[in-house]
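TEACHING EXERCISE
Course module: macromolecular assemblies
Task: Read the component lines below, then compare them to the predicted structure of the full complex.
Student: A.B.
Group: 4
Components provided:
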Amino acid sequence: NAGVTQTPKFRVLKTGQSMTLLCAQDMNHEYMYWYRQDPGMGLRLIHYSVGEGTTAKGEVPDGYNVSRLKKQNFLLGLESAAPSQTSVYFCASTPRGGNTEAFFGQGTRLTVV
Amino acid sequence: AQSVTQLGSHVSVSEGALVLLRCNYSSSVPPYLFWYVQYPNQGLQLLLKYTSAATLVKGINGFEAEFKKSETSFHLTKPSAHMSDAAEYFCAVSENTGRRALTFGSGTRLQVQP
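Instructor-supplied answer key:
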């Protein structure tokens, strides 16, 4: 059981380049999230999805777009990368009902130069 | 709106000493509360969670936390630190309805001295 898998694990981008981060979960979870982690700031919510075909903005959505065409996948896109987007990105998922915790991927370390 | 405050960005203890990591939260509804641990270059792993059952919650690796509504606190403790406990610890509060996203504290890095 792989849980939540993120690809790639590391990436270096030049300012202005675009890229897509992929998150895949095999637990049939309805809810999926993208967070970014920066030193001294914990994790902050970028975008989230409560089901296939639906997405919504979190606290820090500027410069990012997302899509959830399939229930198991949640994509995070950077159309024109900026140095301020240098961060570690985490995907998480959780089921709809009950009091289950969120399950996290291993993270993607992105550097924008 | 929910928020989490973790007092102390760095905590250092000696091996065998008590570990106490502080977490205070703010929530307008009964919260779900979590402690996650992050080892270097890894993702977040759940240590324990409070979801309105017992106020004293036991987790993995000998950690426990007590939910105190009157103090809006959820401090993490371990009676005897081990070298392998060195990591970053995050307290988080969850909305138990709606988007159910986590709001995290800024984290506490625990160092364990031999």
